[in-house]
Amino acid sequence: MSLSARVRVRRGMLHVELDVEVADGEVLAVLGPNGAGKSTLLRVLAGLLAPDAGRVEVDGVPWDDVARGVHLASHRRPLGMVFQDALLFPHLSVADNVAFGLRTRGTGRAAARAAVDGWLTRVELDGLGGRRPAELSGGQAQRAALARALVGDPALLLLDEPLSALDARTRLTVRAVLRRHLAAFAGSTVLVTHDPVDAMALADRVVVVEEGRVVQAGTPVEVSRRPRTDYVARLVGLSLLPGTGQGRTVRLDGGGEVAVAEEVTGPVFAAVRPESVALYLARPEGSPRNVWLLRLAGAVPHGTTVRCELEGAVPLVADVTATAFAELGLAPGAEVWAAVKASEVAVYAR
Amino acid sequence: MSRTGRTGAGVPVPLMIPAALAVAFLVLPLAGLLVRAPWSGLAEQLTAPGVGSALRLSLVSATAATAVSLVLGVPLAWVLARSRVRGRAVLRALVTVPLVLPPVVGGVALFLVLGRQGIVGSWLDETFGITIPFTTTAVVIAQTFVAMPFLVVSVEGALRAADARFEDVAATLGADRWTTFRRVTLPMVAPGVAAGAVLCWARALGEFGATITFAGNFPGTTQTMPVAVYLALQRDPEAAVALSLVLLAVSLATLLLLRDRWLGRAGVAP
């Protein structure tokens, strides 16, 4: 089972041009900001939106082929979809919700019942089948929605921001359930999310989409270590500095210079993790080769640390402990010295 | 934010006085009806020949008109709310014309189409020997013509308010549009359909102009309660008051039913 799609859709200002391939049992995360065209892609794959051009093929069967006038209606596609808000039918019990796809596709009452009971157990909702969706917590509802999508043994599973409506703690448990079931799922999965943690935790491969196009593709580790756009860098908490390599120095496009530990030439990205930036009120003496006088643009608490946004020749994000931040006594607009060891700067070709 | 003054605090006088006048204007006639009602002779009035048959005819025809409106009007509401048919705006305008049209004009129009000399009526008469005007069927048709738009507008509103994403979910679960309509859309807008049906029924029950124009006034077959009230007022005002009381009671019961059973629930529907 595999998905191969070439999708072209024009929606107002947005031109979606996305090509995706997902192998058997593989989970592809489509990561990107709101309005990037992720959901449009998913709606095309689901058959809810006809593409303007392109082709969608699953297991060698064309679901969409605009050139040949093929468009398989949504209800004829063997797929399962999980939506952001679970969207359990409010007038049906949880068990009837899970059974819905089986019943419409012609499974008998008794067989559907048995399959539903099995799936309710698998998503840890035993005994809750008789409840109304309104009586479930957000996490329970999303697990029921997962069971409803998977019970029909689909060829393609589509997940549209499945965790983003949940609170932080619930997200952890549902993510674990999702992870387990995705590992066991034999078909192809496309996960749309704007949360890099979901992508890292659940996907085998990530494509980053901005303004309707793929801007980066790779394994989660590659994408998080070596972001290619500001958007991804921000998501994974890195400062991304594009520049040109000259020996052990990167001359930034923005004007500053960054010393690095290896010889580099040509267009490169230098990436700095926020925790490797140290801040000082006076110019530090000694080893670090990278010392810049920057301005504090803003500061927000981030866990037990304070995330400081710095602007100047080398725009950086720095994480300092709350105590250190208090001792520095910085107000927005104040000047501060930032230091980074050359060995802490990741550098890779653009 | 919340001003919870005790004695109408926050209502400016220029609004307060007209509002009070409006309440008086709406309530006093009904109060007058109750005060002037011939309570002692009421039982006698209501058991008089003709009253029972008029009441029965009204209930039966209004119910039949509601049934026809449901069967035809709910699909029409779906088409208006969900389909991408061209000229939907024009269609909606046409459908809602009977809402603003004087009912007596509706009656004349029906007569011109379905009367013996009418476009459809003459064909029905020649081909099947069916004559519609001045029959109970004509009563039901007149009431449906006037009342169905209420149902259509109400159901269309409910459909627009309902979250269409549930229909996408149903499609991804293998349901075609008809199955989706039956198993998802209709159950979800059921409170709106019920409210629309009650409104439609109440409107059909009170129908006068189109009915008397198209169906006439034959006791037992076309003389509904409103027609009976109007005629009674000319020869026996006490009887008219008694009949009016019955219609008032039915209307109030409808309002209560609407408020408690359906409107309340429709208001909090997810």
From TrEMBL, chain A:
Residues 285-349 form the Mop domain. Keywords: ATP-binding, Molybdenum, Nucleotide-binding, Transport. One of its GO terms (biological process) is molybdate ion transport. Residues 1-236 form the ABC transporter domain. One of its GO terms (molecular function) is ATP binding. Pfam families: ABC_tran (PF00005), TOBE (PF03459). This is Molybdate transport system ATP-binding protein. The lineage of its organism: Bacteria, Bacillati, Actinomycetota, Actinomycetes, Geodermatophilales.
TrEMBL record, chain B:
Pfam families: BPD_transp_1 (PF00528). Its main location: membrane. It is found in: Cell membrane. Belongs to the binding-protein-dependent transport system permease family. CysTW subfamily. Gene3D superfamilies: MetI-like. InterPro entries: MetI-like, MetI-like_sf, ModB_ABC, NifC_ABC_porter. Part of the binding-protein-dependent transport system for molybdenum; probably responsible for the translocation of the substrate across the membrane. It is a multi-pass membrane protein. SUPFAM superfamilies: MetI-like. Keywords: Cell membrane, Membrane, Molybdenum, Transmembrane, Transmembrane helix, Transport. Residues 55-258 form the ABC transmembrane type-1 domain. One of its GO terms (molecular function) is molybdate ion transmembrane transporter activity. One of its GO terms (cellular component) is plasma membrane. This is Molybdenum transport system permease. The chain crosses the membrane at residues 59-81, 93-114, 134-155, 184-204, 239-258.
